[in-house]
């Protein structure tokens, strides 16, 4: 797929970074209004800039920090209710896809049915996430779901997790996205999706043989990633002995099988037969003999560690401020984390009122990830999304499939990962398609098979007139934030491609 000649000037401007924020043209919209919308949301929908101008930046911040106070559009609520698999917990999702009795090999027909069920579950999970991201009024919550899912990443391509990633987001990420970090950490640690993804369900005390007399030993995978990625950070001061100790502490943590009883609605199961009950020394703390409570004590230690406070503060500052966040800001956030016992809402409130966040050099300075670009482009048009497949297709093409990051560190949010010629080529093609009304975003797929067959040709599912995006309305939605150089490039081109050039502009590629 080649970029049409009319887009080459914008592609070069993007790749060369020749339009820094300081060169942006003066506008009638307060740059602070645009900045707060672009960072606390996935970009403005029609009317958002005018609303924030009316109510003020501070009220907008406080509204977004309290998502439960913001009513959701009735159309979004109605769409989500139709996604019936979202209401199922991991146990129900697994049981629904298993029709053969325990110990009996499934037939080819049963395997096909189970595979179709898994596809349906994953498709609905993707639909739900993209519908919320594009249409929800609770934008900061959606932004933080994106942030935390990447932080506690689980890959749908690994076995049972294609059934569980949606439930994982609904049950372990979304409810805690603006709460206490310790609660979020605990929810992810207990969820079957994480237990399966990082193999802790196989983790058993190496002194206890299984039913066949085999001694499989400890599985350190989750214990290591729990410290390196989820809490302390790679330079967090832990040793290999701490990894071993934490693996022993978490031995016996897993999920229930059909023959096992658990009171946990999400399927977490602690198996005492696999647990090492001995005393342990972890990060300098002595954890006395015990069962599941040993793991809870370890999570407490990790959540309250200054190293964790700094690691989380750095990542949040990098996501919201700049690829290399100011040290003073990270220090300030670290102290706030420790003072509030890891209250994420308070941490964000401090960030959004910091000098560094409002430094003009950081305005429009973060390069959008493929996810952020796709969602912001759809939001800018104001289209009511019924079909999320074109968005999902683009994310696949750009190397950022939803729930598809294979490594536990999740997708990065820095420019060096996503800024390259091929990716810009594909972004500009998407911008052109959506601007010309060629994406079937408002067409409703009849069933799973039709959803799967929607390819990358951007052709409507049903015969309907293509409605191009009005360039004047689009400019108004985005706060007339284009630089003089981009405005001149657009003015010298055909009016029919103005909207495409706006969505493909260097300024729109950044937030």
Which descriptors would you attach to this protein?
511 residues, mainly alpha, two-stranded antiparallel ribbon, 25 helices, 4 strands
Describe the protein's architecture and organization.
The structure is a single chain. By secondary structure, this protein is mainly α. It has three domains: 5-69 and 364-503, no CATH class; 192-304, no CATH class; 312-361. 50% of the residues lie in helices and 2% in strands. The chain contains 25 helices and four strands. The strands form two sheets. It has a two-stranded antiparallel sheet. The chain has a two-stranded antiparallel ribbon with strand order 3-4. Residues 18-26 and 455-464 have low confidence and may be disordered.
Task: Give the biggest sheet.
Answer: 2 strands, antiparallel
Number of domains: 3
- Helix segment count? 25
State the helicity in percent bands.
40-55%
Strand arrangement across the biggest beta sheet? 1-2
Strand % is under 5%
Mean pLDDT level: 90
Provide a short characterization of the protein structure:
This protein has helices spanning 8-16, 31-40, 48-55, 57-65, 74-81, 90-96, 108-135, 139-151, 161-173, 181-190, 192-197, 221-230, 240-249, 292-303, 306-320, 327-339, 344-352, 370-381, 389-397, 415-418, 421-435, 448-453, 471-477, 484-491, 498-503, and strands at 253-255, 268-270, 280-282, 285-287. It is mainly α and 511 residues long. It has three domains: 5-69 and 364-503, no CATH class; 192-304, no CATH class; 312-361.
């Amino acid at each position: 797929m080649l970029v049409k000649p009319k887009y080459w000037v914008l592609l070069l401007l993007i790749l060369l970074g020749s339009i820094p924020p300081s060169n942006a043209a003066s506008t009638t919209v307060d740059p602070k209004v645009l900045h707060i919308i672009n960072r606390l949301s996935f970009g403005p929908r029609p009317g958002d800039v005018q609303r924030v101008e009316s109510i003020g930046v501070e009220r907008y911040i406080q509204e977004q920090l309290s998502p439960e106070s913001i009513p959701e559009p009735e159309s979004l609520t109605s769409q989500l209710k139709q996604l019936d698999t979202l209401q199922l917990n991991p146990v129900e999702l697994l049981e629904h896809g298993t029709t053969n009795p325990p110990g009996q090999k499934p037939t080819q027909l049963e395997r096909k049915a189970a595979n179709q069920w898994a596809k349906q579950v994953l498709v609905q999970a993707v639909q739900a996430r993209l519908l919320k991201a594009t249409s929800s009024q609770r934008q900061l919550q959606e932004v933080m779901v994106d942030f935390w899912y990447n932080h506690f990443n689980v890959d749908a391509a690994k076995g049972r997790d294609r059934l569980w990633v949606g439930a994982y987001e609904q049950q372990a990420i979304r409810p805690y996205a603006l709460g206490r970090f310790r609660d979020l950490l605990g929810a992810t640690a207990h969820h079957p999706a994480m237990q399966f993804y990082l193999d802790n369900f196989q983790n058993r005390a190496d002194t206890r043989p299984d039913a066949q007399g085999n001694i499989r030993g400890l599985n350190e995978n989750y214990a290591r990633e729990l410290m390196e990625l989820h809490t302390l950070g790679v330079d967090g001061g832990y040793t290999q002995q701490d990894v071993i100790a934490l693996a022993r502490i978490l031995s016996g943590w897993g999920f229930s099988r059909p023959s096992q009883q658990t009171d946990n609605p999400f399927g977490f199961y602690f198996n005492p037969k696999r647990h090492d009950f001995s005393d342990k020394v972890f990060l300098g703390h002595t954890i006395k003999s015990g069962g599941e409570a040993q793991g809870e004590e370890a999570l407490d230690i990790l959540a309250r560690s200054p190293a964790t406070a700094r690691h989380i503060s750095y990542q949040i500052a990098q996501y919201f401020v700049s690829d290399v966040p100011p040290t003073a800001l990270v220090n300030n956030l670290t102290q706030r984390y420790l003072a509030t016992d890891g209250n994420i809402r308070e941490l964000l409130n401090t960030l959004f009122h910091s000098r560094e966040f409002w430094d003009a050099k950081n305005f429009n300075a973060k390069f959008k990830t493929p996810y952020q670009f796709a969602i912001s482009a759809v939001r800018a048009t104001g289209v009511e999304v019924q079909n999320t497949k074109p968005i999902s297709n683009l994310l696949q093409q750009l190397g950022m499939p939803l729930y598809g990051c294979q490594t536990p560190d999740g997708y990065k949010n820095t420019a060096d990962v996503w800024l390259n010629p091929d990716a810009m080529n594909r972004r500009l093609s998407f911008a052109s398609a959506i601007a010309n009304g060629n994406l079937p975003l408002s067409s409703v797929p009849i069933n799973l098979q039709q959803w799967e067959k929607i390819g990358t040709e951007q052709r409507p599912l049903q015969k309907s007139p293509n409605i191009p995006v009005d360039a004047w309305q689009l400019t108004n939605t985005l706060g007339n934030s284009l630089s003089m150089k981009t405005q001149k490039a657009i003015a010298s081109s055909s009016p029919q491609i103005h909207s495409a050039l706006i969505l493909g502009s260097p300024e729109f590629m950044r937030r």
